[in-house]
Inverse folding.
């Protein structure tokens, strides 16, 4: 079945033009003009990916993303006219997977959507470094690629696609340092440019999620000026 994309934007011109482009590429599209209706719709009928505007009536994109992340790890792309760094970092801290600033190329948006869907699918499949079952176990950490689940000391950790792939990249080679470029390739794939600070924001959010169930979590170590590594307990 074709993937379902949810578009949430109060600009009907954008909804119409982007919908036409995605439908021409074979996607199913559902549109919403405000955050409240989008939240109700997406909780009732989840999509495979959502594209959210930040500035919207009734509920802005930041609050919508925050509410969605309580129930879903669905990939999310922010689409916004704002271009301030603080907005991007806030979105990433809340769990967005990508961020595109208006005005934008629809081809670029399409490329990002396809990349996220590929990563989402890949994260559910068995990786070359994983055992045949698709389960990676590193001490108290268990990653199930087939089910896209993560547990730490038996507690479920809700990770986005990007976060899951970052943790996987580090956990596959415990003790080995991964620089930011390597983590960008692991989480975003090649030919996608992402600023180094984006990786830092994702790592901070991952740590926060683990520390919500274990205050002593310290397995993801920072080597300043170099990158990150996973310390197996």
């Amino acid at each position: 079945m074709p993937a379902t994309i949810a578009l949430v934007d109060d600009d009907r011109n954008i909804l119409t033009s982007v919908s036409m482009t995605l439908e021409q590429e074979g996607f199913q599209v559902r549109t919403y003009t405000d955050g409240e209706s989008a939240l109700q719709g997406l909780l009732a009928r989840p999509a495979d990916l959502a594209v959210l505007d930040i500035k919207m009536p009734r509920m802005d994109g930041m609050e919508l993303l925050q509410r969605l992340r309580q129930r879903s790890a669905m990939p999310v792309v922010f689409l916004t006219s704002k271009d301030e760094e603080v907005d991007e970092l806030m979105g990433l801290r809340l769990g967005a997977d990508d961020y595109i600033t208006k005005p934008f190329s629809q081809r670029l948006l399409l490329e990002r959507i396809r990349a996220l869907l590929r990563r989402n699918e890949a994260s559910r499949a068995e990786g070359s470094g994983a055992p045949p079952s698709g389960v990676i176990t590193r001490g108290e950490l268990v990653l199930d690629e087939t089910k896209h689940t993560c547990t730490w000391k038996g507690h479920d950790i809700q990770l986005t696609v990007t976060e899951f792939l970052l943790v996987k990249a580090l956990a596959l080679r415990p003790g080995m340092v991964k620089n930011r470029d390597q983590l960008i390739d692991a989480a975003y794939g090649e030919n996608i440019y992402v600023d180094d600070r984006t990786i830092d924001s994702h790592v901070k959010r991952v740590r926060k999620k683990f520390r919500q169930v274990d205050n002593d979590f310290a397995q993801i170590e920072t080597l300043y000026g170099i990158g990150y590594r996973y310390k197996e307990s």
In short: Residues 126-132 have pLDDT under 50 and may be disordered. Residues 106-124 form the longest helix (19 residues). Residues 4-125 form a domain with the Rossmann fold fold (CATH 3.40.50.2300). The two ends are 42 Å apart (CA to CA).
